Fold:
Amino acid sequence: MATANLQDTMNSVGQAAKAAAHSLSLAPAAQKVDALQAAAAAIRSRSEDIAAANTIDMAAGADKGLSKAMLDRLLLTSDRIEATAAGVASVAELDDPVGRELSVTDRPNGLRIRQVAVPLGVIGIIYESRPNVTADAAALCLKAGNAAILRGGSDSFNSSGIILECMQAGLAAAGLPVNALQRVPTVDREAVGMLLRMAEYVDVIVPRGGKGLIEHVQQEARVPVFSHLDGINHTFVDAAADLTMAESIVVNAKMRRTGICGAMETMLVHRDVAAEFLPRAVAALQAAGCEDIRGDEAARCLSTGLSPASAEDWDTEYLDSILSVRIVDDLDAAISHVNRHGSHHTEAIITGDAEAAARFQREVDAAIVMHNASTQFADGGEFGMGAEIGIATGRMHARGPVGAAQLTSYKYVVEGSGQTRP
Structure:
């Protein structure tokens, strides 16, 4: 498509989204619930169409040489399609975030000032290979009264297209504007740059994907961005850890799904338990399919089968069956390593020492800090949000899983009885 024509197309998408956002912001809670329930039903009724489209995407991804982890992110099994529908239905059941009274202040002069949640407006969402993000993002935006312009990765273009049709069917069934949920109608990357510059139509951009995508969005966007750069997540096995529990947690944190941003990428082990714990943990990880475990010198002295870790490993998000391991002297060293090499996403400590856990949770700089739990729980659905649009690691507006409530802003509503300011 010629650049001028593409710009016209994107402007039309933006204009339609802006108009739909106004209508959606006024929609009663029950109407949005009806739309989401109808969308979930549509996903279930069109599961065979979604699976067929995903087969096309998977074949194209294999031909392109996508990694095993990336193909896993792209894959939609029948269970994952059902989980996608269930996620949309669960968002429908959440309390409506719009209109929440966030605070009330009664002033001495008789003014009552209420802080009330309102939609953000139009949200541009840019994501990579996971087609289920189409449903998650659309459902959360709809619940929070926002219009959305979705731009999924070209790898999932066919799968995402059918899922979006199901979400739009839900809008239509509830009598809401279909243009409240749109997608960039081309895989042309030039359209992404246009979306990032559409400040007259788009109120916020949410990127969800790898470090390259996030950095590009942050550098090019002319509108606010909710984002994280990557998920370099650590699990620290403390001296007071239950080692059986620790073994189970680290295997899950690394191997449940290696290609998600909540996967553990580095394991830190307290020196006092390293000789006992590391060999059994390495064996369990390898049995679960971890193909490459890279250790520092101390780790390699305690366990066979480890390759040498380089300086770059401590700053790498693998998103694959690869893990780096470091032996640390104490809690201070663990906290120091995490704060130096982590990406402020999700960190975990395994310990029976409540004071050590409290210190780790207080002093580690991350959006999510866990005690005796797998980092794979870093997910909006697991946090009771129904779904998430991503994990934000900045400090402005939203941090951690971004669900429907985080996709609102607020206004101040002031009630008076004739007051004038002296």
